[in-house]
From TrEMBL:
Annotated Pfam families: TPR_16 (PF13432), TPR_17 (PF13431), TPR_6 (PF13174)
Coiled coil: 3-39
Protein name, UniProt field: TTC37 protein
Species annotation: Eurystomus gularis
SMART domains with a match to the protein in the record: TPR
Gene Ontology CC terms, in alphabetical order: Ski complex
Source domain of life: Eukaryota
TPR repeat coordinates: 40-73, 562-595, 596-629
Gene that encodes the chain: Ttc37
Keyword annotations of the record: Coiled coil, Repeat, TPR repeat
Listed SUPFAM superfamilies: HCP-like
PANTHER family: SUPERKILLER 3 PROTEIN-RELATED, SUPERKILLER COMPLEX PROTEIN 3
GO biological processes: RNA catabolic process
Length: 689
């Protein structure tokens, strides 16, 4: 077959393809290949015809053969691209990317529009596969080519914005290089904007700052962007809010940070980050209640701020709201979980604070939870303070051996650490080894004199120590006063100061003040509340006593605050207000249905009210619960006597006198019952009775 005949066969194949006679075209191509097996055009035509006849495997093979023969010819690459584009198979996408890259190379010096079209297709392919770095690099090449071709500023601006759109989904799992390319795109888009200042430019700046805030290592760039935007848009709160949140998360509060907080609150008094900043300022100034109030309010508006939850938990710990602090720590951990690249430093701080709060709750379940929290701290085993907290958790759990082991290790490895000696002191104190506890707490105070808890426990140690210190509680008083000065929210210290002034110094007025303070700090401290009420009554200040009781009973839910209901019920009983007394004593019994004394008092209240049957039931219930309550048994007999049930009353009186022969009220009642029976017999003419 001559060269002329080959050309004729190829021409016939081209005509057949044009007429969509693909099988005919294949015949002509095969004729050519018999003569010239390396004919480029014949292989391209086979590829095209096979693709149209839905024979993708043969088409792919033909195109690849043509490419092998001449890799720098366009036709085969174009055909292969068309074949892959029409294919439904996902495994060809990697091959298609390679084909597009070759086409870009071939179009580089030729058809610009086709280069742009292929570039767009390649970018879209990478985007579908979430290959964001390749998207960024390819799109940047497109922009550079446009710049080289002298594109207008407005067109370049749109291209940079398109690059931002393409990379927006990448911030959650991108590498640093992609991130840098995204930030560069933002900067170019901002610099190429037409209208500055303007609404579009302002929104673009907001997006840029939002994006920067997700990059923990771009703090300088973030601060610059916020300051630049504030200079351009002085009425916009957004950059100031981001800057405030950045300062909050950084954990270091400079003069600049405090200035930002106050400036933001001037612009928007209801801004979450601004209110949080104010709360942190209060925390620094040791205004703990104000700090809790502001941080709580700010977090209702800006809840996804782990650092703010940590600050709130810290403030709650300072006023000994330990359960609230645990809840705040949980919120901080939840917020850390939703952030990109959670901050390990904050997580460790929150877990440590949570463990400390759980230890203060001081029960076995809380101790177990504290141990679990400490286990999650990275490098916990190399942190002696964390180890000391773990030792306390084991002690609260009742695992004294494990606590002692940690204590011994700490004293050997960190003898100058106050926490090492304090842990040893807590262990000795729990085992009532007061002399050893004293030594340990003195060592802890020597190393950290500003810790109120150490003075509190040294005071308690002196309080419970041997006979000599029992008589002279002066040492205990000194330590309690130091603890109270260092931490004015430490309720237990004020309770023991109350004990000292009441039992040792005999100063009822000062004692009452201490008990009242203790109860204000810890509403669950019933001992202090009851003591404050008792002393108010002894000092003749019933208004103060009732004020405390009314406050407690108003807040109390059903089945709680028994002591307050009982105290107020007895007051009403003494002041001849039996109906009020009945209501309060019933409330006290809901909290403790087995209190025989309370049943006895309720019986008295019913009796005063004239409700004899219910009074009788109450006295009987009291004596059932405690058969030793002679008075309740006597009152039951007295009520039966009042009701004219003389035989029953006589039986009960005799029962009392068997136990206590000289119980005068029973003797008197017995005599009266016999007399009443005799009188009744005479009236009914039963003379011989």
């Amino acid at each position: 077959m001559s060269n002329k005949e080959v050309k004729a066969a190829l021409k016939s194949a081209r005509e057949a393809i044009r007429n969509k006679e693909y099988k005919e075209a294949l015949k002509h191509c095969k004729t050519v290949l018999k003569q010239e097996k390396n004919n480029y055009n014949a292989w391209v035509f086979i590829g095209l015809s096979a693709a149209e006849l839905e024979q993708p495997g043969q088409a792919k093979g033909a195109y690849k053969k043509a490419i092998e023969l001449d890799p720098n010819q366009l036709l085969a690459w174009q055909g292969l691209a068309n074949l892959y584009e029409k294919s439904n198979q996902t495994d060809v996408e990697g091959d298609l990317a390679g084909v597009y890259q070759k086409l870009l190379e071939l179009y580089e010096s030729g058809d610009k529009q086709k280069w742009y079209d292929v570039c767009n297709k390649l970018v879209e392919l990478y985007r579908k596969e979430n290959k964001y770095l390749e998207v960024a690099e390819t799109w940047q090449k497109l922009i550079q080519k446009k710049q080289g071709d002298g594109a207008e500023k407005a067109e370049l601006h749109q291209l940079w914005k398109k690059m931002i759109q393409l990379l927006k989904g990448s911030t959650e799992n991108q590498d640093n290089k992609t991130g840098q390319l995204l930030l560069t795109a933002f900067e170019h888009a901002l610099n190429s904007a037409d209208t500055v200042p303007g609404e579009d430019h302002q929104n673009l700046y907001k997006d840029f700052i939002h994006c920067l805030s997700k990059f923990p290592h771009e703090t300088a760039r973030l601060e610059k962007a916020c300051n630049d935007m504030m200079a351009l848009y002085p009425a916009a709160c957004y950059p100031l809010e981001v800057l405030c949140l950045h300062f909050i998360q950084s954990g270091t509060l400079s003069e600049e940070a405090l200035h930002c907080f106050s400036k933001l609150l001037e612009m928007d008094a209801s801004s979450g980050p601004g209110i949080i900043g104010l709360g942190i300022k209060y925390l620094q100034e040791k205004k703990y209640k104000e700090a809790v109030k502001s941080l709580t309010e700010g977090l209702q508006k800006t809840s996804q701020c782990p650092a703010a939850w940590h600050y709130l938990a810290d403030a709650q710990m300072k006023i000994h709201k330990h359960k609230d602090a645990v809840l705040s720590c949980n919120q901080a951990l939840e917020a850390l979980g939703t952030l990109e690249g959670p901050s390990l430093r904050w997580k460790n701080l929150v877990l440590q604070l949570k463990a400390e709060a759980l230890i203060k709750i001081a029960n076995a379940d809380a101790a177990e939870e504290a141990i679990k929290a400490l286990e999650q701290i990275v490098d916990a085993s190399s942190n002696p303070v964390v180890l000391a907290i773990r030792g306390q958790a084991y002690l609260n759990k009742g695992s004294v051996d494990q606590a002692s082991k940690i204590s011994q290790e700490l004293l050997l490895s960190h003898p100058d650490l106050a926490e090492s000696h304090a842990l040893e002191g807590f262990i000795h104190y729990s085992q009532k080894n007061y002399e050893q506890a004293e030594r340990s707490f003195l060592n802890a105070i020597e190393r950290k004199a500003e810790t109120a808890e150490y003075h509190q426990y040294l005071g308690l140690t002196y309080w419970f120590m041997g006979d000599e210190t029992k008589k002279d509680k002066g040492k205990a008083l000194t330590q309690f006063l130091k603890a109270a000065k260092l931490d004015s929210y430490l309720g237990i210290v004020f309770r023991y100061l109350g004990n000292y002034y009441r039992d040792i110094a005999g100063d009822k007025s000062r004692a009452r003040g201490c008990y009242k303070k203790a109860f204000e700090l810890d509403g669950a401290d019933e001992e202090s509340g009851a003591a404050a009420v008792d002393l108010s009554e002894e000092l003749g200040d019933m208004d103060a006593a009732l004020s405390i009781l009314n406050e407690v009973t108003e807040k109390a839910s059903a089945g709680t605050a028994k002591w307050a209901w009982l105290h107020r019920g007895l007051y009403y009983l003494r002041t001849d207000q039996p109906s009020k007394a009945v209501a309060d004593l019933q409330a006290a019994l809901r909290a403790d249905p087995k209190d025989s004394n309370c049943w006895e008092s309720l019986g008295e209240a019913y009796l005063s009210r004239g409700s004899y049957s219910t009074a009788l039931k109450s006295f009987r219930r009291a004596s059932e619960l405690n058969p030793e309550l002679i008075y309740s048994v006597y009152k039951a007999a007295a009520v039966e006597q009042l009701l004219g049930k003389y035989e029953n009353a006589i039986a009960t009186y005799e029962q009392i006198l068997k136990k206590t022969e000289d119980y005068v009220p029973a003797l008197k009642g017995l005599g009266e019952c016999y007399l009443m029976l005799a009188r009744s017999a005479l009236e009914n003419y039963f003379d011989r009775k």
